Amino acid sequence: MKNRLFVVGAGGHGRAVAEAAMLGGEWQEIAFVDDAFPQRQSSGSWPIVSSTTDLQRVIRPGDSAIIAIGNQSVRQRLYRKLTETGAALTTIIHPKAWVSSGATLGAGVAVMAGAVVGTNAIVGRGAIINANATVDHDAVLGNFAHLGVGVQLAGGVVVGERAWLQAGSCAGYRVEVLADAIVAPGTALAADKG
What we know:
By secondary structure, this protein is an alpha/beta fold. It contains three helices and 23 strands.
């Protein structure tokens, strides 16, 4: 039996996650699930085999899957739906990323090329750490949070659930980012000095 991974979301981020999974060498077969199906049958060199409305039919208990969709609310909703199928929510770490052995990663996390996750960092379920982003020591990234390309979190930063820090933003030591916050590209956040 082939070691197969289902990637939910066949857009640019989905292809990047599929490529990271392929480069990791664990998966013999990768297939997409995307709502463009059946009009679209492939994304890159990988097949699209179903839409998300058919998850129960396509994904069986024990199959491995990851949700590769940038929208936090959609990712959370599909995470619940995949859990109901009995799928194993898989974490994909690009082979050119670095994750400390002292870090904790939840299920269904994507850690992309050049990303760094430091010691004692905690990354929640379904989170995205995009290319060249850093989650430094003792930082906490909430469930379904999303770090854009090049986002930098200093030590002790806490990012709430479903928060989205867009490309190039940064958070200094001990900053807290509220749940569902959207931080504009290039924004620098600093903790209150009081």
